[in-house]
Design brief:
This protein is α/β, with parallel strands linked by helices. The chain has one domain. It is built from 3 helices and 6 strands; from the N terminus they run E-E-E-H-E-E-H-H-E. It has a 6-stranded mixed beta sheet. 25% of the residues are buried. This is ASCH domain-containing protein.
Length: 110
């Protein structure tokens, strides 16, 4: 799963969740936007916040709410639970389970 921050309609950056059925990976991909623009869009979308230019914390409930209705894999819920359990085992999940630390990657030119 990828949370993308890309230039959308009217050249205004927007957040979208893509590759929803691929729960073997999760990261934040930035298109041709600045870190400040991406941070603002991510927060306005309610999907999370930047911690620095390489790391963000995604809101687990908001991410699931954005992804689950569009999931097509029959075992999506089970795989989601496994992804969250894996993140917890790696120390990527906040103590209360509400935030998930992810790597920020540039998607510019992709």
């Amino acid at each position: 799963m990828i949370v993308e921050i890309v230039t959308g309609a009217d050249e205004r950056p927007e957040a979208r969740v893509v590759d929803i059925d691929d729960l073997g990976r999760l990261h934040l991909a930035l298109g041709q936007v600045t870190d400040d623009e991406a941070a603002d869009v991510l927060e306005r979308a309610g999907l999370g916040r930047f911690t620095d230019s390489e790391t963000a914390v995604l809101d687990v409930a908001a991410l699931r709410a954005a992804a689950e209705p569009r999931a097509t894999a029959p075992d999506w819920q089970t795989r989601w639970d496994e992804m969250i359990a894996h993140a917890r085992s790696k120390g990527w999940l906040s103590a209360d389970g509400s935030g998930l630390q992810v790597h920020v990657e540039s998607a510019a030119g992709a």
